[in-house]
Amino acid sequence: MTTAREIMSGGAECVGAHDSALEAARKLKELGVGALPICGENNRLTGVITDRDIVVKVLGTGLNPAEVEAGSLAQGEAVTIGADDDVDEVFATMTSHKVRRLPVIDGKQLVGMVALADAARALKSPDAGKLVEALSTD
Questions:
Q1: Closest CA to 112 of 135, 85, 88, 132
Q2: Which CATH number fits the domain that encloses residue 87?
Q3: Per-residue pLDDT tens over the stretch 17-76
Q4: Coil, strand or helix at 96
Q5: pLDDT digit string (tens) for 110-137?
Q6: C-alpha torsion 13→9→52→66, nearest 10
Q7: b (16+ CB within 10 A) / e for 33-55
Q8: Upper half-sphere CA count for residue 16 (Cβ side, 13 Å)
Q9: Phi, psi at 48, each rounded to 5°
Q10: Range of the domain at 25
């Protein structure tokens, strides 16, 4: 059984919920990633912010990224996966929630991120195609 821990990118860094979208963008660039977990009080995961969120929801609407809090861009509750959950559960979670990135949690600790590409590489070919198709439709 392949687990989320085995396919994730480890060492995920959070952006603070009260940090600005500008700070989040800088951190995305510095780390060379397209998404960051958003952590609130007590380092509790509150969501995920993507480069697309910043472009569409901040820049695209004429807001100043230095004045928009990263936490305000989180959508609903954070969708996560357990570090020891099977890759089939990663597949099911991504598909049912239509997300391309999942924070990986071990207990209450953020330990990494699983991206669509990570999951697709770990799945059998037909399942990988189903995952990409499910996430590419509205």
A1: 85
A2: 3.10.580.10
A3: 999 999 999 999 999 988 999 998 877 888 999 999 999 999 999 999 999 999 999 877
A4: helix
A5: 899 998 888 777 766 656 556 665 655 5
A6: 10
A7: bebbbbbbeeeebbbbbbeebbe
A8: 6
A9: -135, 140
A10: 4-136
Tokens of 63: 């807001």
Distance CA(128)–CA(71), nearest Å, equals: 31
CB 46 within 8 A of CB 38: yes
Helices (H) and strands (E) in the chain, counts: 6, 7
pTM, two decimals, is 0.80
Between the alpha carbon of residue 87 and those of residues 8, 28, 93, 102, the distances in Å are 10, 26, 10, 12
Tally of domains in the chain: 1
Encoding tokens for residue 75?
Answer: 């959508």
| CA-CA-CA-CA dihedral for 35, 33, 19, 23, to nearest 10 | -140
Crossing angle for the helix pair 125-136 and 87-97, nearest 10 degrees? 20
What tokens appear for 9 in the block? 């990118």
